[in-house]
Amino acid sequence: MNKNESPTPRKRKKGLETTDRILRASAELFAANGFDAVSLTQIAEASGMRESSLYNHFSGKNAILEALFEIFRSSAPLFRPSPEELDRLLPHMTPEEIMKHILLYFGSHGDDFVERIAMVITNEKFKNPEAAAIYYACIVREPSAYYEALFEKMISRGMIRSLDARMFAEQYNYVSIALTKEYFMAKNGLADLESVVRYMVKTLRFFCSLMQAEA
């Protein structure tokens, strides 16, 4: 094929599949061992290819990490119901039912690949400025703003008592972050999954009791 010719659809598909395989293998290795401890040789081996071939897809480890970061940025909002969906549910559900819906949505839309990237970001945020920025934007600030907007709507409808929506959202989200980490650990066999899920539901009910509307 002439160098100026575009790759065929079949070759493009194969290239995308190989790139995806590299990214998934890298996420698993980075999550388990840390970014610095993983070599390109290990990534190539886990991807089922020669190290020299890996350079056809990425210039190095940092480029792989950047690609993983971008995947997480675009995927994180998809793990919770859209504000529009919540607006449709508000007239028909109690606050506890809505919060459970959000929790179940996260569980049913979970993706092992993205969850591993979240673990990488959580671990690397202590030494990688970009990982820290993504952590605070996508895991701390955006979910807190999401819950704040939801609580404000519930207050305006008289569904929950009047409270500081921002503070309550931040507190709920910080607890959710800790429990989500335990959930990821349990999914990887490092904790009892059933116990973690039970505690997540128990915590949700506790927060719902705190914001219960006055009779």
UniProtKB/TrEMBL annotation:
Record flagged with keyword S-adenosyl-L-methionine: no
Keyword DNA-binding among record annotations: yes
UniProt name for this protein: HTH tetR-type domain-containing protein
Residue ranges of every copy of the HTH tetR-type domain listed in the record: 16-76
PANTHER family listed in its UniProt record: HTH-TYPE TRANSCRIPTIONAL REGULATOR RUTR, MYCOFACTOCIN BIOSYNTHESIS TRANSCRIPTIONAL REGULATOR MFTR-RELATED
Gene3D superfamilies in UniProt: Tetracycline Repressor, domain 2
InterPro entries listed in its UniProt record: Homeodomain-like_sf, HTH-type_TetR-like_transc_reg, HTH_TetR
Keywords associated with the record: DNA-binding, Transcription, Transcription regulation
Molecular function GO labels: DNA-binding transcription factor activity; transcription cis-regulatory region binding
Lineage, opening ranks: unclassified sequences, metagenomes, ecological metagenomes
PROSITE patterns referenced in this protein's UniProt entry, alphabetically: HTH_TETR_2 (PS50977)
SUPFAM superfamilies assigned to the protein according to its UniProt record, in alphabetical order: Homeodomain-like (SSF46689)
